[in-house]
Amino acid sequence: MSSHAHAHHHPHDHGHSHGLVPDAIKRSREGLRAVGLALVVLGATAGLQAVVFAGSGSIALLADLIHNVGDAATAIPLGIAFALRSARAERWAGLAVVAAIFVSACVAAYEAVDRLVDPQDVGGLGALAVAGAVGFAGNWVAAIIRTRAGRRLDSPALVADGDHARADAYVSLGVVASAAALALGLDLVDPLIGLAISLVILRITWHSWRTVRGGHHHEGSRGT
C-alpha cells in the first residue's frame, strides 16, 4: 500500500511504468479539460471584444483582441499534446504557445504604428471600457485555470500559458485607460497604448520561452 502511494508522488514515471497508465490517462483528461475550459473563456472574451472593436475602431482594443485570439488558439497544440499523452508533444506545444505570443505582438505593433501614421477617430468609449474590463476578467479566469492545472500536472507548457494569460489580464486594463484618454481628447494615446501592449507581449514571449525551455529537461524525465 505504501509503495503504491509512493508511486503516485512521482509523476515523472508516467511514461515508463505500465502500472501507472491509468494515471497517465487521468493526466491527459485533466489537461484537456483545463485547456478546453480556458479556450471557452477566452473565445467568449475575444468574441465580445471583436464586436466592440467593429464599432469603436480602437487600436488598443485591436491589439488586445489579436493577443486574446492568439492566446485562445494555443489551446489547439496544447490539447493535441495532452490527447497524445506525449511529453515531447507537450514541449512542442509550449514552443507553439511562445510562437503564437510573438506573432500576436508583431501584428499588434504593426497596427499601432500604422494608426500613429494615419490617425482615425475612435467611437463607443463606454463600450470600449467595458471590453477592456471583460478582457481583464476573461484572462484572469483563464490564467487561474491553466496555472492550477499546470502545477498539478507538472506541465511547464501549461504553466507558461497561465503566466501569459495573467499578464494579458493587466494588458487588457490598457484598453480601459485608452477609453479614458480618448474621453479627454487625447487621441494619440490609443495607438501608443496599443504599441505599449505590443512591447508587454514581447516581454511575455521571453518569459514564456524561458519557462518552456526550463521545463525541457524536467519533462524529458517523463519520457514520450
Quick summary:
The chain is mostly helical and 224 residues long. It has helices spanning 2-7, 21-56, 59-73, 75-84, 87-117, 125-153, 156-183, 189-220. The model is unreliable at 1-21 and 217-224 (pLDDT under 50).
Describe this structure in words.
- Helix 5 (87-117) packs parallel to helix 7 (156-183).
- The longest helix has 36 residues, at 21-56.
- 83% of the residues lie in helices and 0% in strands.
- The two termini are 28 Å apart.
- It is mostly helical.
- The model is unreliable at 1-21 and 217-224 (pLDDT under 50).
- The protein has one domain (20-220): Alpha-lytic protease prodomain-like.
- The chain has eight helices and no strands.
List keywords for this structure.
single chain; 224 residues; mainly alpha; Alpha-lytic protease prodomain-like; disordered N terminus
Q: Tell me, what is the CATH class?
A: Mainly Alpha
The profile of the biggest β sheet is: none
Mean pLDDT: 80
Q: How many discrete domains? A: 1
Quote the beta fraction.
under 5%
Low-confidence sequence ranges: 1-21, 217-224
Shape: elongated
> What does the oligomeric state look like here?
single chain
- Supply the helix-strand structural class: mainly alpha
CATH fold annotation: Alpha-lytic protease prodomain-like
Number of DSSP E strands: 0
- Report Rg: 20 Å
Distance between the termini: 28 Å
Percentage of residues in helical conformation: over 70%
Helices and strands, in order, run as HHHHHHHH
User: How many helices does DSSP assign?
Assistant: 8
Q: What is the annotated CATH architecture?
A: Up-down Bundle
